Amino acid sequence: MKLLKSLAELREYREAVSGSLGFVPTMGALHDGHLSLVYASNMGTDNTIVSIYVNPTQFNNANDLDNYPDTLEADLQKLEAAGVSAVYLPDYQQMYPDDFAYEVNEKTFSAELCGEHRPGHFTGVLTVVMKLLNLVRPDRAYFGEKDYQQLELIRGMVAAFFMDVEIIGCPIVREDDGLAMSSRNLNLSECDRKRSPGFHRILSLGGDDESIAAELQNAGFNVDYVTTRAGRRFGAVLMGTEANPVRLIDNVPAR
Ligand code: PAF
To answer: From the CA of 69, how far away is ligand 1's center (Å)?
Structure first.
């Protein structure tokens, strides 16, 4: 497995790749959800490259960025074991030579759901994903359906800008107790981790969005939103403390 730390190393790798290339962009703190994307890429393409980059422009809360888990050594071991051919580890200078003077901005869906509660988040996501896709030039790129809104916005961006890449969405991977796997789960206290499966359980109940939101509040979750759209129910809740909130998102077929 090659470790690529500079643009020159990435370009050299890209020129030498033979056959198709699958790409899994991540922010590290890898779990089985990320690995499911890697396996999908391994199955669907001849080579898989993963990027690990905690993108500051998609964080609208400095504490959230500071607390984002960093498990690089363990991540690299998991990726090596999963048969990845290269890992790209850019830094801010490589990603933002323009110091974020240019951005990719979607004007409608990005303002809803998570976008309503995290202003600027999707602009940061779309900007860094476009940069990464332009640099890596994969045949296919893999994203998890837990971040369903992100996936839809990336599909929209790729279509709008005629980008030559196939976007593949992969199903949510859950813990045995139903909690959707997320890097942020590492930041849950023991007590919050025990309570957290209630989020998915209640979100999956039948009823309208208001009653589900009320049920979540009653169970002690601080609700950002519960919204049904196109047959899916989307939810976000805050756990943790006011100073160090841990935001969980999930989506399920609406009942
Ligand atoms: O889903 C993520 O981990 C991030 O939003 C992504 C796609 C790697 C962009 O930073």
So the answer is: 14
* Global confidence as pTM: 0.97
Residues assigned a catalytic role: 34
Compute the mean pLDDT over every residue in the chain, rounded to the nearest whole number. 97
Neighbours of 36 (CB within 10 A): 19
* Ligand 1 atom closest to residue 55's alpha carbon, by position in its atom list: 10
pLDDT digits (tens, 9 = 90+) for 129-158: 999 999 999 999 999 999 999 999 999 999
Total count of residues recorded for the chain: 255
CA pair distance 248, 13, nearest whole angstrom: 36
pLDDT tens track for 230-244: 999 999 999 999 888
Side chain identity at residue 24, one-letter code: V
Nearest protein CA to atom 9 of ligand 1, as residue: 125
Is the model's pLDDT at 255 over the cut of 90?
Answer: no
**What does R_g of the chain's alpha carbons equal in angstroms?**
18
Q: What is the pLDDT of residue 243?
A: 85
Closest CA to 184 of 125, 247, 234, 102: 247
Furthest C-alpha separation in the chain: 56
The predicted structure's pLDDT at residue 239: 97
Report d(CA 131, CA 137) in Å as an integer.
10
Go through the domains of the chain in sequence order and give each one's CATH number.
2-170 (3.40.50.620), 183-249 (3.30.1300.10)
